[in-house]
Each structure stands twice: as structure tokens, then as C-alpha cells.
Amino acid sequence: MSPVALSALFVAAAASLVQAQNPVATFPATPLASKHFAYPSGIPYQADSEQLIRGTQTGYNICNSTTENQNSLCQTSFVNSIDDFCLWAPIKPNSAIADTEGEEVAWCTKPGRGTRLIPADALKGVEFTRTPDYLQVVGFIDQTKINIADGDFGGELDPHGADLRGNPLGGLMYSNGWSNDNNSFTQVIEWHNFMGGNGFCIKVCDPSKTHAADFCQHTLDRIGCKYNAPNAAQSGVFQSCQGDNQDFPGVYTTNGATVTYSQPPESLGAITSIPYEPRVPASSNCVTYTSSALYAALANVTPAPGVSASSSGSVSASASASGSASGSGSSSRPGTSSGSAAGSSATGNSNDASVIVMSGLVSVMGVIFSAIFLS
Prior knowledge:
Layout: H1 3-21, E1 76-81, E2 84-89, H2 97-100, E3 105-108, E4 116-117, E5 123-130, E6 134-141, E7 155-157, E8 172-175, E9 186-187, E10 190-196, E11 199-205, H3 212-215, H4 224-228, E12 238-243, E13 251-254, E14 257-260, E15 283-289, H5 291-294, H6 352-361, H7 368-373
Parallel strand pairs: 1-8, 3-4, 5-12
Antiparallel strand pairs: 1-2, 2-3, 5-6, 6-11, 7-10, 8-9, 10-11, 12-15, 13-14
């Protein structure tokens, strides 16, 4: 072997030894769900400053009038009321949630948050529910107007993720829903947001309550809003209600016994059946609004360049009495299995929602929501 080749061999061996001794870490020193920041004075520029296997946080958490535009990378979100909430969605047009879950940015219904705004006419129906333990928003949306590709059945965003850094990385959530002052915000520690299939559901759980993590649990990321956020949302209807608490996601009663459903691992293939139907909680004091009255500030907001209205922007009438849905948001990148519990496989795969759709349960696109994901 020549001296040059021998030298190269030694260099390669040394590099391998250094990498083995100093592997790229996966888990942060402090999980995102354990980080607490007062709003607005305590917000850091980035809630996730780690240099780990998934890279760095894409956007920022200090958001104000200088960052409020349709190119904003603000990753501080809010759920307050039917006319004041945000959704997580991609930065670039025609993106799949499964490919971008670690990078999503906040899209809001009101200016003043330093975020992107949901374009005019994107929202096709919204149900806001206030319960004793959580606030929930379920709705229908032309998802192409917030950069989600037409036909993408999406996935789940939450403050955990397989590596405990959250999806999106560093994404923070706040609400004034539990204060008497609209300018006083509580950090929401437990929340989940399903996006895709021209629908969405987002639930934020009151951190002062004992079961916040139970109502906003994040381990059923493959079975969507029907099971994680039971609802009575209707396409074309905008209403705000008071409601009872749902059962904990995955918990149901059969023959007088309480049973907990466990989502099967992706390695076993598509989920072709689920042994229960979720209970839709009772609601009361519902107030109906018009879209134009609720979202007047969005009238002049337009989609990003290159985005055209989805051909399936309005949900089929067959799902008109139902909520929104999405399946798994598992990504092909290491450590990003959407909503997975810590310690689960760090390698995702294809969008499980598509797998479910192709399983034979439903073959007509127009009724996928009501048959699989909706109540």
C-alpha cells in the first residue's frame, strides 16, 4: 500500500473513532414540553437551540409586527376563540405534512401575532368548543392555501415527537382562554393539531388541570381527528359552543368495562379496523356566525405565489356533519415520527393516512373523511 493510501486509511479510521466516541445526540437536555416561557417577556428567540440529529429549529419564537407577513417563520402559536386561533402548516407551497412536520410555522386568523395569516376564504367551516379541561377547534379548509399539497392526508403536530423536541421543533403554544384578560396568556404545555385531508383539529389542554396530558395525548397519531377530537363540526357552519369533556383519546367502555386502545406499530402495516366508535361529547349554548364577520381581517390576504385553489377545497356533503381528520405524520427523516412516544422507532415511513385509504376500507375519495376519520 502506498504511503498516500495508508495515510488516507488512518485518517478515515481516526474520523470513524471520533464519530463513535462523539455520536450526534438525539434527545435534548430538556424536552420541549418541559420548557416554560412567560408570554411575551420570557419568549426566547428560539425555544429549541439544540444541535442534534434533526438539525436546528427552522424558525423563531419572538414574533411581532416586523415578522408578520406571508413569509413569516414564526413558530409561536395561539388558540383563543373561534375568531382567534392558529394552525401549523408548511413554509413552502405544495408541501406534505409528513415531510415538513419539524418545520411548520404558525398561520393565524388574526393579525397582531407576528405570524402568517390564513388566506381569505380558506376556512370552509369551523367549530370552536370550550370544555372544562380544554379548548378545541375543528374545521374544514382549502389546505392548498396554507401550503399543504392537494390530496395530502397530513399528520399530527404536537410538543413531543419521537425525540421530545416537538413537531415543529421549538413550536410554542399559548392561550388567553383561561384568563379574564384577553392580553394575559397561559403557555399550553399539552396540545395536538391534526392537519390534512382538507380539514383540521387542534386541541389545547388547560395546564392547571390534572388530566391535560390525557386529553391532549399524542400516541394515536395514525387515526386522526375522529378518535382524538370527537366533534360535530359541519362544512359551511361556523359556531362556538360550550361542551362536555370527551373521553380520553383511545379510552372507551364496552360491556361495562373500561378499555384502552393501543395504536399498533407501523411495522404491522395499515390500520384496517378499530374496535370502537368514539363518543361525541354533548354541547350547548352554541352561537352561529358568518365567516365574513369572524375573519374580516383576512379579506385581503392571498395565498403564496404559485398556490392555486384545491379542486377538493370544499368537503363532500357526505362528511358535512363530521369533523376533520388526518392520519400519521411520520417522516422519512430520523427521529421525526409524528406524535410517537419517546423511545419509539426513530425512522418513519410513508404517510400512513394514504396507507389507510388504500387499505380497502374506502375507495371513494369523497367519503374518506366520514368513513375513516370523522364522527
